[in-house]
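Hi Y.,

Following your request, here is the sequence exactly as I used it, all 221 residues.
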Amino acid sequence: MAILKIARMGHPILRRTAEPVADPRAPEIHRLVRDMLETMEDAGGTGLAAPQVHVPLRVVVFFVATGRAAAEDAAGFDDKGADDSVSEAARNGAGAGRAVPLTILINPEIEVLDPALSLGPEACLSVPGLVGQVPRPRRIRHRGLTLEGERLEREAAGFHARVVLHECDHLDGVLYPQRMTDLSLLSFAEEALRHAAAVLPEAAQETQQETPSNSEVLEAP
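Below is the corresponding structure, written out as tokens. Let me know if you'd prefer a different format.
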């Protein structure tokens, strides 16, 4: 395995549309995923897309840790009133406030289930040192292939949905600042933490445990 160099905003690879993977079971794809996982762990991220490591293929990896899922609930994500047709699988691990295991998605597709937008902070390993408030759909369905070539489909809400949307944007050459509707809400992560501490000391202390400059996506609203 190897730790790969992460492309930063301004590199042409981040503006490209990534190509589909022909065979998820190919050894080079397995090697790429292993390197992406090691790179993500080294950088302290919660997600990574292949274009971020200079490979223009439609591959993303991500997870949602228990602490971040809990932070989502504490920050006020309200799952009440959601569509009653939400699957049992979504309620048992893919919804708001729940941890999501390490997931590898190849050739992912996204379907928006709830078009209502939720504003929340995001950071990116390819946009180091900054954090912005980004509007995202509250609930989605994502599907794709595993490394074994099997279909994987989940419904996602809250932070889980935000992570998937953020990573899949990379596959289409989109960085989170391009999704922002108010660029006055783009700031240096250190300043955001400093001023959050002045207004909400307890919330800031929780946020500081997940340094924005080292996190791919911050806690959801």
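Residues 72-95, 200-221 have pLDDT under 50 and may be disordered.

Thanks again,
Q.
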